[in-house]
């Protein structure tokens, strides 16, 4: 059974930090590019960051550059998203995703809520 489980979300004040984790099981984690997405109320799901199978290739959406860092530990089947200098507009449900090579789908976690508010 494939599972992706996000954790680490919560309520933080603007300027604060959070570290999200995504733990994977049921598939060969180390062979997959992994991604973080987020979805705010009333908005489309958007790509936050991606990381190659061995962590050597990372990409970020422009809005997240300089504030967010994606990483992974294949020995622990875990991907991370370090989020610094959080802004209210970062409020969203954050999802981890293991995309299929065909781009027709992938594995998804259930999401973790991040709320940035004073």
Would you give an account of this structure?
By secondary structure, this protein is mainly beta. It is built from no helices and 11 strands. The strands form 2 sheets. Strands 2, 4, 5, 6, 9, 10 and 11 form a 7-stranded mixed sheet that branches. The model has no long low-confidence stretch (mean pLDDT 96).
Number of helices: 0
Q: What oligomeric state do the depicted chains represent?
A: single chain
Average pLDDT for all residues: 96
Query: How many extended strands?
Result: 11
Biggest beta-sheet profile: 7 strands, mixed
Question: How much is the radius of gyration in Å?
Answer: 13 Å
**Helix/strand/pairing category:** mainly beta
Order of helices and strands: EEEEEEEEEEE
Shape: globular
Provide the low-confidence segments as ranges. none
Helix share bin: under 10%
Strand portion:
over 45%
Cα distance spanning the termini: 40 Å
Write the layout of secondary structure elements.
Blueprint: E1 3-7, E2 10-12, E3 18-25, E4 34-39, E5 46-51, E6 58-60, E7 68-73, E8 78-83, E9 92-99, E10 106-108, E11 112-116
Parallel strand pairs: 2-11
Antiparallel strand pairs: 1-3, 3-8, 4-5, 4-9, 5-6, 7-8, 9-10, 9-11
